[in-house]
UniProtKB/TrEMBL annotation:
This is Sugar ABC transporter substrate-binding protein. The keyword Signal applies. Gene3D superfamilies: Periplasmic binding protein-like II. Pfam families: SBP_bac_1 (PF01547). The keyword Signal applies. Keywords: Signal. It comes from Streptomyces bohaiensis. InterPro entries: Bact_solute-bd_prot1, SBP. Residues 1-28 form the signal peptide. It comes from the Bacteria.
Length: 451
């Protein structure tokens, strides 16, 4: 494509500029000089990663003699710091948590080590056990592997089985969005203490845009056609967005324009909503010991309209910096932290509900995991297995991605568009007005990729 080098340079410059704004954070604890005794890891501070940090010294270090120097930061901060370090190839960190959004982009820019040689020499790792959609999403345009997953997720619909039974409603094994809207309206009419559904409305490419884009896909829309023409004012995109906005405005939670994943999880946990469409990762919290709704939730695939499936695909994965001179130790850590053995360690020490699942077929065949995740493991496995990042809709796409478009500009574009749609949810403008502004922003991005 024309201007690919220009775009790469711009992406690097943007990443560096963003990184320069950061103040000093937790220290990396030494250099990556390949001394054979340590490895420097930069990762997000979610619960699964904190658990990994807790288990490392007594297990990985005890077994290998390799000390792991962790830098652990909130998601927005860690993304900025990873972009800074990997773009500059400073090699301050050997390994970092990146997602299936960043991996192909970083690989294209030459920021990541190819992992296939390490996989070929690691007979115990069993890469074939990694679920195929996860493997494909962490592959570069050259067909080489550039990251290994720590855990993965898709999306599905969660609903209150007891409320549906009380109201005489029957959830299909594969609901459509039209059926979901009817259910939400019925709950609203019959239950004054409960809203029909909770959907994200909080601005952000990883907040509102994630579920909305899966709705766009299954309604037959797309952000760009295969020639990079922006499609945000096309009939299918407009219909999907109007459906989403009207559904959450008419039957969704109060303050929807400021509700993200955390707020919807809280609404579902506290019994304030009858349905929630979001990440499969939410099930673990809903079914946790002490949850007020434990055992009351049913789980079905993401609702559809024109496609057979519509769940998204996301993973936090381990990528190795290209400039690292500590590659052997870095791979040993990646291999351990994404292995079947690590999942078994977590299951035995912290309970199987805490296992970083969503990546290995063996997890879903494990009787202990099945027992702890009985309510949702099968639906989660099917959602991840059926995800199609290269073909999520009804037409060819110019870039991979289900809930995002796999280009560097999407973080900014998606966030800009989300602000306009969130404003429509808040009643500050119409969907038509929001998408006219969004279309203009998307056109500027698309033009940079056209011949």
């Amino acid at each position: 494509m024309r201007s690919q080098s220009r775009r790469n340079r711009a992406a690097i410059a943007t990443a560096l500029a963003g990184g320069m704004l950061l103040t000093a954070c937790a220290g990396a604890g030494g250099s990556s000089g390949g001394d054979g005794e340590s490895v420097n890891v930069l990762m997000v501070n979610n619960p699964q990663m904190v658990e990994l940090q807790r288990l490392t010294a007594d297990n990985f270090t005890a077994e290998t003699g390799i000390e792991v120097n962790f830098t652990v930061l909130p998601e927005n901060d860690v993304r900025d710091k990873i972009s800074q370090d990997f773009a500059s190839q400073s090699a301050q960190y050997d390994v970092a948590t990146i997602s299936n959004y960043e991996t192909p982009i970083y690989a294209r820019n030459g920021w990541l080590h190819e992992l296939d040689p390490f996989l070929a020499d690691d007979a115990d790792y069993n890469e074939e056990d990694i679920l195929e959609p996860m493997r494909l999403s962490l592959t570069g345009e050259d067909g080489k592997t550039y990251a290994q997953p720590f855990y993965g997720e898709s999306s599905f619909l969660m609903y209150r089985k007891d409320i549906f039974e009380e109201l005489g409603l029957e959830m299909p094994e594969q609901p459509t969005w039209d059926e979901v809207a009817e259910f939400a309206a019925t709950v609203d009419e019959e239950r004054s203490d409960m809203k029909g559904i909770c959907l994200r409305g909080l601005p952000g490419w990883g907040e509102l845009v994630a579920p909305l884009t899966t709705v766009v896909n299954t309604f037959g829309g797309t952000w760009f056609d295969e020639d990079w023409n922006a499609q945000l004012t096309a009939p299918e995109f407009v219909e999907a967005t109007e459906f989403y906005v009207n559904l959450v405005r008419d039957h969704g939670q109060s303050g929807a324009a400021q509700s993200g994943y955390a707020e919807c999880l809280n609404n579902m946990t506290q019994g304030n909503t009858a349905m929630w469409y979001d990440a499969t990762a939410g099930a673990g919290s809903l079914e946790a010991d002490g949850s007020p709704v434990q055992g009351d939730i049913g789980y079905v695939p993401a609702p559809v309209k024109e496609t057979e499936s519509s769940g998204w695909l996301y993973t936090w994965a381990w990528g190795m910096q290209k400039a690292s001179e500590n590659t052997d130790n870095a791979w040993k850590f990646i291999s351990w932290a994404s292995s079947q053995g690590y999942e078994e360690l977590v299951g035995e020490t912290s309970g199987w509900s805490n296992v970083p699942a969503g990546k290995r077929a063996s997890t879903y065949e494990n009787a202990d995991y099945q027992a702890d995740a009985e309510a949702f493991y099968d639906v989660t496995f099917r959602a991840i297995s059926e995800a199609k990042p290269d073909d999520p809709g009804v037409q060819p796409r110019p870039a991979a991605g289900i809930q995002f478009v796999g280009i560097p500009e999407f973080t900014d574009l998606g966030t800009r568009v989300s602000r306009e749609i969130s404003a429509a949810i808040a009643g500050q403008q119409s969907v038509e007005e929001a998408l006219e502004k969004a279309q203009a922003a998307a056109e500027r991005v698309g033009e940079g990729y056209q011949d």
